[in-house]
Amino acid sequence: MRNILGVTLRGVEALPVEVEVEITGGLFAISIIGMPDVAVRESRERVRAALRYLGLNLKGRISVNLAPADIPKEGALLDLPIALGMLHATSMISECPKALYMGELALDGRLRRVRGAVPAAFLARELNIPLYVPVENAEEVALVKGVNAYCADSLSELVLMLKGEIEPRPVPPVYIPEMPENSEPDFADVKGQTQARRAAEIAAAGHHNLLLVGSPGSGKTLIAKALAGILPPLTDDELVETLLVRSTLGIETTTGRQRPFRTVHFTASTVSVCGGGNNLKPGEVSLAHRGVLFLDEYTEFKRDLTESLRGPIEDGQITVSRAAGTVTYPSRVLLVLAANPCACGYFGDPLIPCKCSSFDIERYRRKLSGPIIDRIDLQINVPRLTPEELLSFTDKNNPPESSAVIRERVIKARKIQQERWKEFGLVCNAELPEKLVKKFLTLSDEEHAYLVKMAEKFNLSGRGLSRVLKVSRTIADLAGEENINTKHLAEALMYRQVYGR
Ligand SMILES: [Zn+2]
């Protein structure tokens, strides 16, 4: 393998690209071979300008070969290694240490942020060679442990480093606080709604999907958003997983241990939600990996979009394919859906009468069914409070519990789960595959008989049953109890009686 290596991206994976430059006499021309796309051809102009800025006027026929030829390459990631290749071919630099180089060049030779620095860091670690990145990418690279990484502001700075005329500049270490900052809205702002608060806590503790059904103004969107503030902080491994996805898109990575919270509007395209498109980019469901994917006004979503979410929700990953190839992105999300109870929005409302016919209600209820709803562990009604109730909950001396207090309990319950499922590479109860549910979520005879009776009463499917067991496990973990008892089962069953089976 040659010394000057660049990278190209395939999903969240970086692949090495060997850069070889040859200069022969003749009329000036630059050709880049090795399946480059439009962006690589544009790179030719940027590299030429940046080199001119360094005082190098290219002459002759210059051929740049990017190998292997059969993988598609895209983006401006290759500017830097191509420029170094040219400097090397013109003897402007004699030695180029074997390393991965990535960076986009500005016309004046400054190095610009590129996407994919985190996957590149993994690759450099795997190949056991150094990585050189633009300063703007230094922080995310520093989050990957065990990488020998350096950064530079400009091509000229890097050249001086490579020549040994200045000290190499290692990426500075970053400090990530153990606990994310408190986020808004806070559960202290949610009045009443005891059941919804409890369901949100269980959802956060075990990473269980949540459906909130209530009239406009009942606060279901507020509750969904407040959920972000009670999620446990990302672990080191989870942080890197979320970084990988964001780095692939070139999104700023300064969110620390805060779990992602992504809201999808019902007009969103399937590609933007699930990923794909010409560049096989990750979608919202992958950006929400290890965090929350929130679908407000769920009944307004088109069926084909919700159908396409079924795989990623169930499998925790999504494979997107195009002519350019196939890539897999992670998508282990906590799905939160919010919906009105009926078409007019006021079915069951204490003040405003519902205008829907029983036929309308029946038709609407069908939208709140199907494969996605079946995968929602916690389903609850969020009633709108009457003005009297609102007032009664506005007691300054007895404010509702804050998100910080709830989060403490969530973190405790999550730690129990991490410890329990460690050997299987899992972090929370919701992730548990069927065979582990059967093996480990066992019940005593009495509890078993109770669950069988309830399953018949509520016509629960096999999958529904296993979801009840997982939620029961989380409820028991929140209570710090070793065994699932009838009380835990009864509460878990209560959250599955509304929609789906
Ligand atoms: Zn209605």
What structural keywords apply?
alpha/beta, 501 residues, seven-stranded mixed β-sheet, five-stranded parallel β-sheet, Rossmann fold, Ribosomal Protein S5, domain 2, 2 domains, binds zinc ion
Describe this entry's structure for a reader.
It is a single chain. The protein has 501 residues and is of the alpha/beta class. The chain has two domains: 4-163, Ribosomal Protein S5, domain 2, CATH 3.30.230; 187-494, Rossmann fold. Helices cover 39% and strands 16% of the residues. It has 19 helices and 16 strands. It has helices spanning 38-53, 79-89, 117-127, 138-142, 155-163, 194-206, 220-226, 236-249, 270-274, 284-287, 303-315, 358-367, 371-374, 387-392, 403-421, 434-440, 445-457, 462-478, 486-494; strands at residues 4-10, 13-24, 29-33, 61-67, 99-101, 104-105, 111-112, 131-134, 149-152, 210-213, 261-264, 292-295, 317-322, 325-330, 334-339, 378-381. A seven-stranded mixed beta sheet has the order 3-4-2-1-5-8-9. A hairpin with a 2-residue loop joins β13 (317-322) and β14. The longest helix is centred in the last third of the chain and has 19 residues, at 403-421. The protein is elongated and about 85 Å long. The model has no long low-confidence stretch (mean pLDDT 90). It binds zinc ion (ZN). Zinc ion binds at residues 342-344, 346-347, 354-356.
